[in-house]
Specification:
The complex is a heterotrimer of chains A (53), B (78) and C (666). Chain A has 53 residues and is an all-alpha fold. In chain A, 51% of the residues lie in helices and 0% in strands. Chain A contains 1 helix and no strands. The longest helix of chain A has 27 residues. Chain B has one domain: Ferrous iron transport protein A (FeoA) (SH3 type barrels, Roll), CATH 2.30.30. In chain B, strands 4-3-2-1-5 form a 5-stranded antiparallel β-sheet. Chain C is α/β, with parallel strands linked by helices and 666 residues long. Chain C has 29 helices and 12 strands. A 7-stranded mixed β-sheet of chain C has the order 2-3-4-1-5-6-8, with helices on both faces. A two-stranded antiparallel sheet of chain C has the order 7-9. A two-stranded antiparallel ribbon of chain C has the order 11-12. The chains are: A mainly alpha (53), B alpha+beta (78), C alpha/beta (666). The interface between B and C is large, with 37 and 45 residues. Strand 4 of chain B pairs antiparallel with strand 10 of chain C, so a sheet runs across the interface.
Chain lengths: 53, 78, 666
């Protein structure tokens, strides 16, 4: 019984945390500003189209 | 003539850039493509896209840009 | 040193071309300690930070990435104003050493401004990789004696040396004039300088102002109208040209071994960008990518499955031991572990896919694809530039949609956004891996590749139709730089792949985790509470509504309806819902597949049905994140919802066609 409550509690907390993280990640998603300057090749961080500029 | 009429392997010298979109002209300028610059055509497609070499850098340009660059032939490349 | 006694704070401006690694370097100094604001009056971000070196506080300002100091763009104006008017003691000019020609243009302009400049030569590692060498003695000589410091923002080397240079040089301007123009131009500069002196008195950077006046720079003319030069002679082109000539000289004198690499690139390009063979070669390369994704990925997958089986069993045992309620055992084992774990076993395939894509990116091939595809894109009324977002779409549609910002015209953007979701993203890969493996045996790979092709063809077809009714004028304004080919850098690739793998794991831990819980609930409950039979659950009720609609496509099972709806949260969820639906713990393993195949075949679900399902999954509404992104990018709910509806109908039609026509032959 106690184990059930504890585990169910953990899952609930984890699910809420996951939902919050997902929404926040999406909001902060800054990827490409479309500056069309990633003239081929990747930038120093190894990304293209996601230079965070 | 314009760069669009140029042939692969030949080198031309830019006489003028006549593009409606000023932003592209500026960008070309910053990339080192200005009047009196030498341009070598490395590759061209039927669609009118080109790969050109300007000051040691390769650029892929579209038909519209190629048509807006006025050039004069310099010399044949072997 | 006595001159440091007043302990004044030193202000350093970081400036450089876009993508020269300036921000990475800046962050290496400041860490997370940043102050972000906007430049006055404009929406360009202004980032400030600080660091200390030998007890001195050094304030750092990150200026926008620019190519030139003209006054055409907001970024350029902001940077220029900051250097001229704010109390910047020294300018650190970050330069991408691997493309010196491009970067030195800005440097020469900075030098003319007369402020102390320090050149930070970034990306020296790439220069070395390419087998080139830079003469670090000759370079400063040709740049008026300014300090030149090789740094690596990535490896964090040279950072102290750079700060040392800042400390020692912040008071010294450029000693000598660097660019000597031709006599005629120099005479004009002197004349203008004299005029400036006559009307406005002694100016600190009169040479810079004179040059800008000769270039007919609007801003400077406003400041010093009396010294303006008649516009009949435009010196601007001469000035630019002569600066570039000097750059040519510098490069000639300081950069070695460039030619041999260039020749190698030319040779490779002869084939890879061939007017006729370019497209088939691209398709071949993509086929190879997917071949590797399947074979190597499948090979690695085995270990993941063993691990998952073990984990699932262990958790099950533990829960029984703890006497946890049955429903919770079901939620954990059949819901969460089956759902999330099932997706995790596809990680090897995802990993290989991104590894291959990173390889293509870093070698310099990807940029060429835009050129190779320019002809085909032109027929669709789109620029070759629009193909880059589409290629990104093979990874994930979200950044791909964002990358359409590179297209100037609104109409082009919307068209590209409309067709980008058809480029099969990595989330759809697990669906193909699973169903192709289950139903196509040794032709699995072929079946999966055909889906990628079908996606591309669907995108092309739709663009063609749109173009037929609404002729878009092909702008032909493709303009991208093609880097030289190089052997890919292990570190760069590692960073790239890790980012993607991290994204995948995050998705498994968030979206898919939540979706699995909801799905489990829907499938195990009905109005009476928990149910023994899935067929009586909420989920089944919902699925049954869709059953008749999906029947013509050979997908007339309520389970498929449920899987497809849940797939909108993320496409991988289609797979996890199959595991939850049929209660298969390890769907990606041989045993799991056999079990599922058995169940499906017993209700007459054959290879043809599987193919129709895959086609539907390829084409139907993208995931929620993509829909939200599209809304954000188009600012229109109407347009976004219209697109969603269109994709649903289109996917349904395509699946029906496949199933019905296929049925005639099989």
């Amino acid at each position: 019984m106690i184990a059930t409550i504890v585990i169910a509690g953990i899952i609930t907390v984890a699910a809420i945390a996951a939902a919050v993280k997902r929404v926040r990640d999406f909001r902060n998603h800054r990827y490409c500003a479309g500056c069309s300057r990633c003239a081929g090749g990747m930038n120093a961080d190894g990304n293209r189209g996601s230079c965070h500029k | 003539m314009t760069l669009y009429e140029g042939k692969t392997g030949f080198t031309y010298v830019v006489k003028g850039i006549h593009l409606e979109q000023n932003s592209i002209t500026r960008r070309l300028e910053a990339l080192g493509l200005n009047e009196m610059t030498g341009v070598q055509i490395l590759n061209r497609k039927r669609s009118g896209a080109f790969i050109i070499k300007v000051r040691g850098t390769r650029l892929a340009i579209g038909k519209y840009i190629a048509q807006g660059i006025e050039v004069e032939e310099v010399k044949k490349n072997a | 040193m006595p001159k440091h006694t007043e302990e004044k704070e030193i202000t350093v401006g970081f400036i450089g071309n876009p993508n020269c690694g300036k921000t990475t370097l800046f962050n290496a100094f400041t860490g997370a300690n940043l102050k972000v604001a906007n430049w006055p009056g404009v929406t360009v971000e202004r980032v400030e930070g600080s660091t200390t070196y030998k007890g001195r506080t050094i304030k750092l300002i990150d200026l926008p990435g620019i190519y030139s100091l003209a006054s055409y763009s907001i970024e350029e104006k902001v940077s220029r104003k900051c250097i001229m008017q704010e109390n910047i003691d020294v300018v650190v000019n970050v330069v991408d050493a691997s493309s010196l020609e491009r970067n030195l243009y800005l440097t020469l302009q900075l030098l003319e401004m007369g402020k102390p400049v320090i050149l930070a030569l970034n990306m020296m590692d790439i220069v070395e990789e390419r087998g080139m060498e830079i003469d670090l003695h000759r370079l400063p000589e040709m740049l008026g004696g300014i300090p030149v410091v090789p740094v690596s923002a990535r490896k964090r080397t040279g950072l102290d040396v750079l700060l040392h240079a800042v400390l020692h040089h912040y008071e010294e301007g450029v000693k000598d004039r660097v660019v000597h123009y031709e006599p005629e131009l120099e005479a004009a500069i002197s004349r203008t300088e004299e005029n400036l002196k006559k009307y406005y008195g002694e100016l600190v950077h009169s040479r810079w102002y004179a040059i800008k006046l000769l270039e007919q720079d609007e801003e400077i003319i406003q400041y010093y109208p009396k010294a303006a030069v008649a516009a009949d002679i435009n010196y601007e082109k001469q000035i630019i040209h002569q600066k570039y000539n000097y750059i040519d000289e510098i490069v000639e004198d300081t950069l070695f071994n460039k030619e041999s690499k260039a020749q190698a690139t030319d040779k490779v390009d002869k084939y890879l960008t061939h007017p006729v063979w370019g497209v088939p070669i691209f398709l071949g390369i993509m086929a190879l990518v997917f071949f590797l994704t399947f074979t190597v990925g499948d090979f690695l997958k085995g270990y993941f499955e063993i691990a998952l089986d073990w984990f699932s069993g262990a958790v099950s045992g533990l829960l029984i031991k703890l006497a946890v309620a049955d429903w919770l055992q079901s939620l954990l084992v059949d819901g969460i572990i089956a759902g999330v774990g099932g997706i995790l076993t596809f990680l090897p395939n995802i990993f290989i896919l991104f590894l291959a894509l990173a390889f293509l990116e870093d070698s310099g091939y990807m940029a060429r694809v835009a050129y190779v595809m320019d002809g085909i894109m032109g027929m669709l009324g789109l620029s070759g530039k629009a193909f880059l977002p589409m290629v990104l779409g093979f990874g994930c549609t979200v950044p791909a949609v964002m990358a359409t910002r590179a297209l100037e015209k609104e109409k082009d953007r919307k068209r590209t956004i409309l067709i980008t979701p058809f480029m099969s993203c990595s989330a759809r890969l697990p669906i193909y891996v699973l169903f192709a493996d289950m139903f196509f045996g040794k032709y699995a790979m072929l079946a999966a590749y055909s889906l990628y092709l079908a996606g591309v063809l669907a995108a092309i077809g739709i663009a063609l139709v749109i173009n037929h009714f609404d002729r878009g004028k092909t702008e032909g304004t493709l303009l991208i730089e093609l880097p030289e080919y190089k052997s890919p850098n292990a570190r760069t690739i590692a960073i790239y792949v890790w980012e993607k793998v991290k994204d995948y794991l995050t998705k498994a831990g968030t979206t898919i985790f939540i979706a699995s819980i909801i799905l489990w609930f829907l499938l195990n409950f009905n109005l009476q509470g928990m149910t023994e039979h899935v067929a009586d659950s909420f989920g089944a009720e919902i699925g049954k509504i869709l059953e008749p609609v999906l029947r013509p496509a050979g997908l007339g099972m309520w389970q498929i309806g449920v899987a497809l709806i849940s797939g909108i949260s993320a496409k991988e969820v289609v797979v996890s819902s199959f595991s939850v639906l049929f209660g298969i713990g390890n769907i990606n393993s041989a045993a799991g597949m056999t079990e599922l195949t058995g169940i499906l075949e017993s209700v007459g679900f054959t290879a043809l049905n599987a193919y129709a399902l895959m086609i539907f999954c390829l084409l139907y509404t993208p995931c929620a994140a993509t829909i939200a992104t599209i809304k954000k990018e188009t600012h229109s709910w109407k347009w976004t919802l219209g697109m969603v509806l269109f994709q649903l109908v289109f996917a349904w039609l395509a699946a029906v066609l496949v199933y019905q026509i296929g049925g005639l032959f099989l």
